[in-house]
Amino acid sequence: MPSLTRIVNNPFFNIAFFFAVRQAIKYFGLEKPEYLMGFRILYYGVQILVVLLSFYIISIINTKNDQTVLRYVDPAKPGWDGVETQDTLVVTTFAGKSLIEYDKQEVFKAMKQSAMGIAMVSFLHFKFGYIQPLVIQSLLGIKAFFTTKEARIHLFHESTKSGDLKRPFSVQAPLGMNQMFPQPKTDKASIKKAERALKAD
Description:
Inorganic phosphate transport PHO88, 2 strands, SND3_fun, single chain
């Protein structure tokens, strides 16, 4: 039986949720002007809550003070000009970037994505007067936060020994097409190859 996390993270769940909320708004007549301010308060209130919870997770990460060392290869990625970059060796060290910094970077990455989403929803709302994105993203924003890997690890204490929570995290691709996107490499052969390339440079 699939886990709840897998179900709510499925792209088809978001599509079904979008259409359900859209129909509910029309059915209950929530597009009326008197509901507008309430939806704005709901949406931006949720975004502030997500930011506060993100900093709370960062405080938990700092408290744990996990200095575990990570060694992996960040795979080559095609650039805007079509030229593919080289594999990059990433080593977290006690003196530098331990798991503390890795996890904090992941939280900040999620916050940056959230900020881009806020900008887009705000543009659609204030430029074109759309109300639906405010409602949908208010609910999906909370869902997205609590299903992030860092929230699952530090708030819900899920295991990081295997599965999608094992560090380094796998790259999440649209529509679940993860196999089509390069993933971090943790095997010894890839690490040694990247080390040789680094020494040669």
